Every structure is written in structure tokens, then in C-alpha cells.
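Minimal example, chain plus acetoacetyl-coenzyme A.
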Amino acid sequence: MDFKNIEISIENKIAYLIISRPKALNALNKETILELKKAVKILCEDRKVRVIILRGKGEKAFVAGADIKEMKELDQKEAKQFSLMGQRVFQKIEDCKKPVIAAINGHALGGGMELALACDLRIASEDAKLGHPEVGLGIIPGFGATQRLSSLIGKGLAKEYIYTGRSISAKKANIIGLINQVTKKDELMDKVKELAKEIVKNSPSSITKAKAAINLFDQSFLKEGLEKEAELFASCFKTYDQKEGMKSFIKKEKPQFKGEQGGK
Ligand code: CAA
């Protein structure tokens, strides 16, 4: 299959899925999200594949978030559709019968961090920067972080990182359990492959069953939480702050927020 912003390959039962928009630091526009959906379906259904490794193209970024230039123009209804579109694709990753490992090779911000959160395991290179800068753009995370980040590191830390928008170093992310391992920059892919090979040695049906059971842990409230997140994310797109935040990012200026509530 021909993709514009995604590359896939399979080698020794391990699939490689690369998000490839390096000029925009692999930011997720609609086109890329739709391609990601197709790529995930292909690899999750391929019987030759036992583990999927997901990474970003280039040296600088895993994924620097949803595409702000595209989001800037969305109205409330379109923002809800955008949020649901991303959430559903990420849910397919979480529901995939095979383990998906995020190889975080640089910035994993906003929607990029949410993509990593939907994966089973996360390994980051020592220079990677993670975080949720959305509130500095006048919006909130809309691809699942309000639920999955809280589930992974606890509500207290999730609130701290989402409210401040602070970036998290790979070392810190490892300490708080946000990632499984931190590696030297040039060793990232070797370490990720090592982990994938360790998994491939085991019974694939047992791993599928273990994944299904572990995922049930927080599924009872995930669906409702994601619906609420999409609604609140969309309501940001009625506010002055969203317009100011995204315009300022594009102009490389500091935003001046007003703090209006906007529509529900
Ligand atoms: N959307 C669109 N374009 C982006 C982007 C994004 N998320 N992130 C980076 N880019 C673009 C930049 O605009 C720039 O393009 P130009 O060359 O045309 O100016 C190019 O990628 C390179 O980026 P920078 O020049 O900014 O590179 P830098 O090294 O100075 O900074 C960075 C790197 C800190 C990651 C910075 O690019 C940045 O802050 N990016 C935005 C991160 C962000 O806020 N992500 C969250 C988005 S909102 C979201 O994801 C919501 C959700 O939950 C669904």
C-alpha cells in the first residue's frame, strides 16, 4: 500500500511503523491519522507480525503533536470530529492483538505523547522530551491523555504535567514510570529490537491474552472519559484563547490569554 506520511516494513516477525512528516516534526494532520489507521489495521491483522515498533522519522521528533496549523481553523464541531478520529485510531493500537512498542526518538508532545501512551511499552532515547503543552495553546489534550496519562502515572502527576505544560526529560519519565527504559541516543533502536525479540520468543497467543486482560484494568471508565475529553477539547475551539494560542505558536510569539470559558 502506498502511504504519503507513513512507512511500514516487516523483518523477522517485527513490524516497523514510521510516522514520516519530518519537516513538521511528524505532527499528526488528518491525512497522517487516516494513514496511521490503515497501517495499524494492516500490521495488526498480519499473521507474520508478532510485535510492532512505532517511531518518528528523523532525529528530532517522535511526533510533535497534532498539527497545530491544521487545527487552528477548526470550529467546535470539527474539533470534536478531529478528537474522536484520533482517539479511535489510538484505541485500535491499544486493542491490537500484538504488543506495540513506542521508540521515542525525540519530541513526544501533545498528540505525540498520546500516541506513545496508547502503545504497550515506551522506550526513549536520553535526549527525548515528553509532555503536554496543550494548555499553552488554549486547548486541552484531545487524543486520550486525560485518561491514559492519569492511569499510567496517577492523577496527581498527570494534573501537574497537563496544567503546567512542562516538558519531561526521558530520565524523569523513566523515574515516574511514564516510560519503560531510557537509552543512549545511538542505542535506541538496538534496545527496542532487543525487547521486541524477547517478546517474540514467547507464545503469541499468551501475549494476546495477557494484553487483553491487562487492558481491562481501566477500560470500565476509559470510554466515558474519552467521550468527555472529546467534548471538552471541542469546547476549547469556541474560545479566544484557542485562537490566540495557535496563532501565537505559528507566529512564534507569546500568547496573551483571556480565560473565557467558551461553549460546552
Ligand atoms: N503542528 C504543526 N507544525 C509543527 C508542530 C505541530 N504540532 N510542531 C512543530 N511544527 C513545525 C513548526 O511550525 C516548524 O515549521 P516551520 O519550519 O514551517 O516554521 C517545524 O515544525 C519545525 O519546528 P520548530 O521550528 O518549532 O522546531 P524547534 O526545534 O524550534 O522546536 C518544538 C521544536 C519544541 C517541538 C516546537 O516545534 C513545538 O513546540 N511544537 C509544538 C508542540 C505542541 O504544542 N504540541 C501539541 C499540539 S496540540 C495537540 O497535540 C492536541 C491534542 O491532544 C490532539
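The first helix runs from residue 30 to 45. The longest strand covers residues 6-11.
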